[in-house]
Design a protein that fits this description.
Layout: E1 18-20, E2 34-36, H1 40-51, E3 73-74, E4 79-80, E5 85-86, E6 91-92, E7 97-98, E8 103-104, E9 109-110, E10 115-116, E11 121-122, E12 127-128, E13 131-133, E14 138-139, E15 144-145, E16 152-155, E17 158-161, E18 168-170, E19 175-176, E20 181-182, E21 190-192, E22 197-198, E23 203-204, E24 209-210, E25 215-216, E26 221-222, E27 227-228, E28 233-234, E29 239-240, E30 245-246, E31 251-252, E32 257-258, E33 267-269, E34 274-275, H2 276-299
Parallel strand pairs: 1-2, 3-6, 4-7, 5-8, 6-9, 7-10, 8-11, 9-12, 10-13, 11-14, 12-15, 13-18, 14-19, 15-20, 18-21, 19-22, 20-23, 21-24, 22-25, 23-26, 24-27, 25-28, 26-29, 27-30, 28-31, 29-32, 31-33
Antiparallel strand pairs: 16-17, 33-34
Enzyme class: transferase
GO molecular function, one term: UDP-3-O-[(3R)-3-hydroxyacyl]-glucosamine N-acyltransferase activity
Pfam family, one: Hexapep
Amino acid sequence: MLTRRNRGELETCHASAIICPPELRSLIPDHIPMLVSAQAHAAFAIAGSILFPDAMRPRTSAVVPEGIHPTAFVDPTARLEAGVIVDPNAVIGADVEIGTGSRIGAGSVIGRGVRIGRNTTIATGCSIQSALIGDAVIIFDGARIGQDGFGYAPGPRGMLKIVQVGRVIIQDRVEIGANSTIDRGTMDDTVIGEGTKIDNLVQIAHNVRIGRHCGIVAQVGIAGSTVIGDGVMIGGASGINGHITIADGAQVAAMSGVMASLGPGEKVAGVPARPIKDFLRDVAHLIGQADKAKAKGKKE
């Protein structure tokens, strides 16, 4: 991305063209063609999808078959529309339904009764259980969807397992990163809203409900029964307490610990998470105290 900080690189740039916002057009040398867009980052994304359409979905195996590979197992009761691709060693269980244009990657397991929409990609080595998955969803390698949540009750002889009989519902155009896990609901469902993007190594517990067009970065953990609104952004390695609500448009900085509910558009950081202005003030104070201690130590 072009910014004022890296404008010096333009003098040696040999790009065929540069996409930039209107306020930066004066920085572009005359020898570089320019495409001006008020939403330059989005324009770059759209251009990439046109120039490299194959990169918009993960490669599911080294083999690129049509139809069902001979080494895959498809239960006789499964219903696959025309145009579904099933890669080597994949397993499609009983009563599964998969829509046209979808692809099941090598070694993936689709459990009994799962429903998968159209033009959805399940990459290699995934396991999908107790789930309803919409259209144009991408689930990257090694993801685990629909396993039991962590539910136990203390008893006189130890921890007693609480049955997990809910589902995972993943709406249209969701992306789920490699090795992420989404637990099925206990009695209700775990829900991931339309257009939400989930990075690698994210844990989403039972009965969590995530709204539309959220962004959840790597190594986030969301505890059970939390409700997250639309357009929420959660930075990497953050922990979200259970049974709270994070309202529409809230933003959580990386490595934060959210213990209580957040209001619409609220921005927080730190452990425990607090308004980001308070967090930055606290950090500045601590740095100032440390600098004073260092200066005092040198004088002594």
